[in-house]
Amino acid sequence: MQLIQTVNVASAQANITFSSIPQTYNDLVIVLSSRTDRTVGAWSDFLIKLNTATTNFTNRGLYGTGSNTASWTASMGYLGMTSNANNTASTFGNATIYIPNYRVATAKSISTDSVSESNATAANQEIMATLWNVTDPITEIILYPDAGANWVQYSSASLYGITAGSSGGVTVS
Amino acid sequence: MSEIITKLVVDLSKDENDPLRVQSIPLTESELAERETMRIQAEAEQAAREAAEQAKADAKASGIAKLLALGLTEAEAQALVN
Predict the structure, then answer these.
(1) Helices B29-69 and B74-81, interaxial angle, to 10°?
(2) Whole-number pLDDT of residue B78
(3) CB of A96 within 8 A of CB of A89?
(4) What span, in angstroms and rounded, lies between the C-alpha atoms of A34 and A18?
(5) Given A7, A68, A144, which is nearest B56 (Cβ)?
(6) Which of B5, B6, B12, B36 to mutate to test the interface with A (most CBs of A within 10 A)?
(7) From the candidates B6, B8, B34, which should be mutated to test the interface with A, based on the most A CB atoms within 10 A?
(8) B32-59: per-residue pLDDT in tens?
């Protein structure tokens, strides 16, 4: 896995955009440490746009709140949960976003595991399966918090590329 | 003066040492409009999820109370609903 770019949020930003993504890897991974300035609710959701598209997404998420578990579906490019302004101060949520075969001419699947950190009873964890039913290669990724919120200072995102290994010429029968 | 909303853009076509590789860029009018539309939709969806969460929590509490009334211990009732 090769680090392509790490970006740190120095002041509130509506989204983090990785554009002109190199078409030289097989898979992509994004590691996100984040917090939003949203003041409603016990967590923030965050979403993805691929190649600026917000359509053709379907999701299935399974999450735990510390006292309950639930499953839900959506169609807006939801990826997971992160911390917001109502969570413990200076505490950031974490997420790992895995996008296999981002260049291949098939529908794109995304697997995300995320937590919204907070020193409270309600600190959520979620695993999300997302499908972008478009066969175009992914050239741009936009990560944004829901409900018009912003990523706050000290949020960060690291984009990694994974290249498939070589068989080394070994034939398996 | 209204606040300028910006996005953090990493242009990976630029060299790693290019100062323009990472920029904070104001959102366009269309991006602002789209953001507002999605804000409304997202708030409605989260409100629905939180309402469902609360309903589930209330139903669980009600179930536990009824189990206790039937003579189960607190530990037995919790073991059944968790």
Answers:
(1) 140
(2) 86
(3) no
(4) 16
(5) A68
(6) B12
(7) B8
(8) 998 888 888 877 877 887 788 788 889 8
